[in-house]
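Sample entry (100 residues):
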Amino acid sequence: MTAPSAYLLLSAILFGIGVVGVVARKNVLIILMSVELMLNGVNVAFVAAGSYLGDTAGGIFAFMVMTVAAAEAAVGLALLIALYRLKETVDITELKVLKW
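Predicted structure, serialized as tokens:
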């Protein structure tokens, strides 16, 4: 069995890659994928902590995060398709439709 610190390190790496993707990229699709990567990093941490503590709460929280991630992906991709049909671009600097 691997130590929980290895899983937490993997979680931190996944979350960090996701943060860099959200901050540094201009493509909306890449930003959505980076958010999913961040959520998966959190899931790894929840499951690792739950397994280490011998509690099922970590798995339950991970399942809730997966549910939120699925809803986020569905709504995000629907918005992305609608914006692409309107502006024919996925570059976030050119998408000013949602601004006030």
